[in-house]
Design brief:
10 helices, alpha/beta
Length: 317
Amino acid sequence: MKLIIQIPAWNEEACLGRTLDSLPAEMEGFAEVGLQVVDDGSTDRTAEIAREHGAKVVRLPIHRGLAVAFATGLQAAVDDGADVIVNTDADGQYDPRDIATLVAPILSGEAQMVIGDRQVENLSRFSTVKKLLQKLGSWVVRKLSRTNVKDATSGFRAITRKTALKLHVFTRFTYTLETILQAGEAGLNVVSVPIRSASEEQRPSRLFKSNLGYVLRSLESLARIVVLYNPLRIFLRFGAVPFALGTALLLRFLWFYFTGANPAGHVQSLLLAVILIVVGVQIWVVGIVADLIAVNRRLLEEAVERARDRRPPSVLP
């Protein structure tokens, strides 16, 4: 089997060489280990350094963002015959010795996606606010994806070839949350394993300038992917609110009308009840239509998955 270690990189000439030199050249369970750098439109010597250190370079002509670089790298790795793909960062924040830990659940057949748990509560480089946001975000992702992921924003992860073929990244912000939700919707087994991470920040984050900005962008990504893949559940719940309120107002009106307490009054309640019930039903209809579209999209994704896979299936799930 073949393992490809992938690094999305954008203007990383300062640290990329050191990171590549630290990666393993061989790994138990694999006959071949390859290195791949996805150059996200860098304007420095990122691509040249990657080649100098023995990595294959997949180059994007312009800067497209981390999510696009990640997805482009997955397809390139699949085309290159990868059975398992490990994604890590160019700044060396993840310990390469933990790659063996990442791939172990895949080799044993326990999982199709493995995510490294940085144990953020122990990271001194994270502020208290950031730790709380990380824990809260991971809890939300666990609930939405119905997985047991402990560190949802960790970029240190291993996935099988078949899983890579199933993933479709829609955002340009970050792939971390979106791919977990997709894996959960696809019924894939996603597990977490503890890993080591640098105690000091290697460089300032390029994804966001503030915690608030990161939270807002993450919520946007979560909302989009949930509505894309499970719209009926969302629209049924939203539609139930005005429908229930309208039903309560209608029952209130009928109570006063039939008991004769005030048969001529409360017409406003009747009108509002009708409006709320109609709104609720309309939201449900939109949900049904969106669900039909989602079913059609899944069929298209299965067709795309078969088209993207250009070799006989491997033994891994």
